[in-house]
């Protein structure tokens, strides 16, 4: 949902751009009504808090983008554990709260139970009619939205051709984020994603960022035999990026938090149903730097080989330069960003350690083999536009890997089986 109005993009022979923009315009209008205080709740008060409920793709994408841009508070909850609901409504008044239920199918057990819990919270305080003013939905299943009691006029559609884990650029992300940041900011996010779509579509392979990254991943996984990948953003604002990308690749045996990459490419058979003679998908994990350096980097430096994605930002969202310090706080962070790939690549030899008078018994322990692969991505800043670009780069990279492995990156039967057992 990131294309200009005059673009033509067909799904099943039909240009879908006009209906996409119909929804975007509706989101724009609705979010402006709520943000300006013209949309009032059941008791006539303006709504000032938003709670979004969803899980998987209907949760992680909006959470990642919100965390990256964070200048206010949208509460986004997922877990069926009642603690999640309780913590997210602490301090909120139903009279001034809008609940956005986000579910592609509108059948997902966790989301529906959380939605019923919040419906009860609203109706207990304001009566059953309050649902019309305090609950809206994002879904492909408008029949079930209505059955749940949400006015279909307050539903924001998307379509089956939007995969759940790729849905943050649809109403799934656009509605909650527009309510918080305003539609014009979210439009910049969509623009960033769209620019990368065009780059991916038209740039020759040797200069095509998602293609090159996808090839490197396949090389690392399938040829060098390194099944994991660490996603290491050197900015706290991207703390939810790795959890979101994990979704896009997950092998079956990973918990549902780890899923764009792991849900998409964690497959055992080819797109034609033939068992793969190799293992597809990669195990993604990550933490913002420098936190990760003090937990799992030891393994990356001297234990298993784990290809790393380092992501840095030139201009911090929070410039701080303390009097008396040699460098700004952000430069301190970035020194780490530049140092880690070098340490992985060059390592440290026994000869170097000897020349530094390291005692003989410590030399094996302090030797680093080096030659450990990493890539570094440097963003000019972390605004809505760049966040959209980053997201799209990773989404297309997942697709590139899936194409090369010959798998279907857009189904998730493993997750479906788990749902049946529940
Ligand atoms: O949006 P929903 O229909 O509620 O589905 C939520 C999630 O359900 C499953 O976990 C799927 O594997 C995810 O891809 C999806 O995002």
Automatic annotation (TrEMBL):
<dbReference type="GO" id="GO:0051156">
    <property type="term" value="P:glucose 6-phosphate metabolic process"/>
</dbReference>
<dbReference type="InterPro" id="IPR018189">
    <property type="entry name" value="Phosphoglucose_isomerase_CS"/>
</dbReference>
<keyword id="KW-0413">Isomerase</keyword>
<protein>
    <recommendedName>
        <fullName>Glucose-6-phosphate isomerase</fullName>
        <ecNumber>5.3.1.9</ecNumber>
    </recommendedName>
</protein>
<keyword id="KW-0312">Gluconeogenesis</keyword>
<dbReference type="GO" id="GO:0006094">
    <property type="term" value="P:gluconeogenesis"/>
</dbReference>
<dbReference type="InterPro" id="IPR035476">
    <property type="entry name" value="SIS_PGI_1"/>
</dbReference>
<dbReference type="InterPro" id="IPR046348">
    <property type="entry name" value="SIS_dom_sf"/>
</dbReference>
<dbReference type="GO" id="GO:0048029">
    <property type="term" value="F:monosaccharide binding"/>
</dbReference>
<dbReference type="InterPro" id="IPR035482">
    <property type="entry name" value="SIS_PGI_2"/>
</dbReference>
<dbReference type="InterPro" id="IPR001672">
    <property type="entry name" value="G6P_Isomerase"/>
</dbReference>
<keyword id="KW-0324">Glycolysis</keyword>
<dbReference type="GO" id="GO:0004347">
    <property type="term" value="F:glucose-6-phosphate isomerase activity"/>
</dbReference>
<comment type="pathway">
    <text>Carbohydrate degradation; glycolysis; D-glyceraldehyde 3-phosphate and glycerone phosphate from D-glucose: step 2/4.</text>
</comment>
<dbReference type="GO" id="GO:0006096">
    <property type="term" value="P:glycolytic process"/>
</dbReference>
<dbReference type="GO" id="GO:0097367">
    <property type="term" value="F:carbohydrate derivative binding"/>
</dbReference>
<dbReference type="Pfam" id="PF00342">
    <property type="entry name" value="PGI"/>
</dbReference>
<comment type="similarity">
    <text>Belongs to the GPI family.</text>
</comment>
<dbReference type="GO" id="GO:0005829">
    <property type="term" value="C:cytosol"/>
</dbReference>
<keyword id="KW-0963">Cytoplasm</keyword>
């Amino acid at each position: 949902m990131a294309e200009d109005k005059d673009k033509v993009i067909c799904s099943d022979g039909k240009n879908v751009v006009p209906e996409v923009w119909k929804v975007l315009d509706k989101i724009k209008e609705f979010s402006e009504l709520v943000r300006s205080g013209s949309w009032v709740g059941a008791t006539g008060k303006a709504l000032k808090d938003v709670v979004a409920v969803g899980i998987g793709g209907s949760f992680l994408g909006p959470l990642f983008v919100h965390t990256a841009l964070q200048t206010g508070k949208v509460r986004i909850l997922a877990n069926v554990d009642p603690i999640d609901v309780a913590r997210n409504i602490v301090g909120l008044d139903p009279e001034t709260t809008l609940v956005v239920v986000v579910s592609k199918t509108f059948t997902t057990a966790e989301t529906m139970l959380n939605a019923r819990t919040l419906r009860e919270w609203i109706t207990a305080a304001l009566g059953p009619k309050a649902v019309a003013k305090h609950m809206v939905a994002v879904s492909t299943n408008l029949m079930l939205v209505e059955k749940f009691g949400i006015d279909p006029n307050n539903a924001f559609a998307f379509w089956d051709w939007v995969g759940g884990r790729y849905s943050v650029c649809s109403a799934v992300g656009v509605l909650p984020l527009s309510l918080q940041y305003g539609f014009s900011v979210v439009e910049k996010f969509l623009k960033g994603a769209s620019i990368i779509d065009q780059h991916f579509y038209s740039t020759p392979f040797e200069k095509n960022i998602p293609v090159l990254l996808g090839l490197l991943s396949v090389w690392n996984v399938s040829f060098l035999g390194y099944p994991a990948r660490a996603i290491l953003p050197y900015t706290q604002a991207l703390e939810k990026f790795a959890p979101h990308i994990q979704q896009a690749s997950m092998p079956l045996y990973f918990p549902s938090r780890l899923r764009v990459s792991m849900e998409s490419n964690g497959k055992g058979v080819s797109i034609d149903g033939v068992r793969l003679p190799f293992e597809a998908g990669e195990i993604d994990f990550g933490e913002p730097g420098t936190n990760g350096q003090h937990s799992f980097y030891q393994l990356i430096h001297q234990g298993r080989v784990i290809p790393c994605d380092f992501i840095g930002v030139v201009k911090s969202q929070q410039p701080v330069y303390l009097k008396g310090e040699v460098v700004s706080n952000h430069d301190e962070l970035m020194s780490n960003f530049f140092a880690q790939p070098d340490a992985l690549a060059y390592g440290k030899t026994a000869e170097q350690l000897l020349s530094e008078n390291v005692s003989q018994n410590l030399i094996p322990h302090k030797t680093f083999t080096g030659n450990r692969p990493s890539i570094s991505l440097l963003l000019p800043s972390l605004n809505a536009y760049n966040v959209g670009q980053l997201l799209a780069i990773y989404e297309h990279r997942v697709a590139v890997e899936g194409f090369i492995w010959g798998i279907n990156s857009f189904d998730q039967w493993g997750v479906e089986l788990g749902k049946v057992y529940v």
